[in-house]
Automatic annotation (TrEMBL):
Protein source organism: Mesorhizobium mediterraneum
InterPro entries assigned to the protein according to its UniProt record, in alphabetical order: Carboh/pur_kinase_PfkB_CS, PfkB_Carbo_kinase, PfkB_dom, Ribokinase-like
Annotated family: Belongs to the carbohydrate kinase PfkB family.
Membrane-spanning intervals of the chain: none
Phylogenetic classification of the source organism: Bacteria, Pseudomonadati, Pseudomonadota, Alphaproteobacteria, Hyphomicrobiales
Protein name as it appears in the record: Sugar kinase
Residue span, Carbohydrate kinase PfkB domain: 44-296
Residues making up the signal peptide according to the UniProt record: none
Single GO MF annotation: ATP binding
Length: 315
């Protein structure tokens, strides 16, 4: 089976317990939950049985251990996660507003995550990879950008493929080279996985069809537009496949896009028909939102298939 890798931020998420809770005053918190968009992605891919490994860095602390242990338990290759003594693992504090939007307080570039590099272990992992997945949020510093771009070059030089999820988090995407890097990654991608308005960051078109046509003409193999509870729409040169979402009770939306993307890319690598890859991806995205914490809603393939078969929420 094809091996996929990602590189980027590894962190713990700490969540405000109440909707609308402000971080300007003390209040109840939940967590720490293992997190970081590329970590969620690699964890979900591994849980589906795809060989998958992550390049990143944590501190020699409990938050780092929590992340490595979780990824290992899910079956991911953690050999290229560096552990830095004297550095704290990255953190994200998140609070949900009443309108369902999120407010984050991140510490990533100045945490152990900021020390990400293409070291010997990362080089070895990349040599065994058939596919690299890049998250826009992982382009959080010039150093992280260099790691992502070199991963793309290595995997492509070996005949591999690339997927790209913009996963825009404005709070952390302050690197001077970030915009250029986003365009650079898109130009090298086979699969593009934007969510909502992210489609229009890379196109001058005003509607979905116009943007999709423009981007497909630039060389993408396919575009999968994520639409939250409504599901997702797949586009390639041959046409469009709309795939509805599964009805679930959403308790925490964070991580849905990463779990969806991991499932879609894993099944694309297995040569699945777009409609089949989309069904599994929508199921993984739906399951992700049924648990508090971005990696708590990751399930193995058998459980995802059982969920699809019954159409019922998992207890
Ligand atoms: P993230 O917050 O992780 O960045 P995203 O914005 O990238 O998410 P979304 O469109 O919110 O992506 O969600 C990805 C997928 O997860 C959707 O396409 C859908 O399949 C599933 N999903 C998300 N929210 C729900 C929901 N409330 N009910 C059912 N499925 C959902
Ligand atoms: Mg996303």
């Amino acid at each position: 089976m094809k091996k996929l890798v990602s590189a980027g931020e590894i962190l713990v998420e700490i969540m405000a317990e109440r909707i609308g809770q402000s971080f300007l005053e003390p209040g109840p918190l939940l967590g720490p939950y293992p997190s970081g968009a590329p970590a969620i992605f690699i964890g979900q891919a591994a849980a589906l049985g795809q060989p998958a490994g992550l390049i990143g860095a944590v501190g020699d602390d409990d938050f780092g251990r929590l992340n490595i242990e979780r990824l290992r338990t899910l079956g991911a290759d953690v050999s290229a996660i560096a552990v830095h003594t004297g550095q704290a693992t990255g953190t994200a504090f998140v609070t949900y507003r009443a309108d369902a939007s999120r407010h984050f307080v991140f510490n990533i570039a100045n945490s152990a995550s900021g020390l990400i590099e293409t070291d010997t272990a990362a080089t070895k992992l990349l040599a065994s990879a058939d596919h690299v997945h890049v998250m826009g949020s992982s382009l959080f510093s010039d150093r992280a950008i260099a790691v992502a771009l070199s991963a793309i070059e290595t995997v492509k030089a070996g005949g591999g493929t690339v997927s790209f999820d913009p996963n825009i988090r404005r709070e952390i995407m302050q690197a001077s080279g970030m915009r250029t890097a986003l365009d650079h990654v898109l130009a090298r991608a086979d699969i593009f996985l934007p969510s909502g308005e992210e489609l229009f960051l890379f196109s001058s078109a005003k509607d979905e069809k116009g943007a999709v046509d423009e981007l497909l003409n630039r060389g993408l193999s396919c575009i999968v537009l994520k639409k939250g509870a409504a599901g997702a729409t797949y586009h390639d040169r041959h046409g469009t496949v709309a795939s509805p979402g599964f009805a679930v009770d959403e308790v925490d939306p964070t991580g849905a896009g990463d779990c969806f993307g991991a499932a879609f890319v894993s099944f694309w690598l297995r040569g699945a028909a777009p409609a089949d890859a989309m069904r599994i991806a929508n199921a993984c995205g739906a399951l992700a939102v049924t648990r508090k914490g971005p990696m708590e809603g990751i399930f193995p393939l058998e459980a995802v298939e059982a969920f699809i078969a019954t159409g019922k929420n998992m207890q």
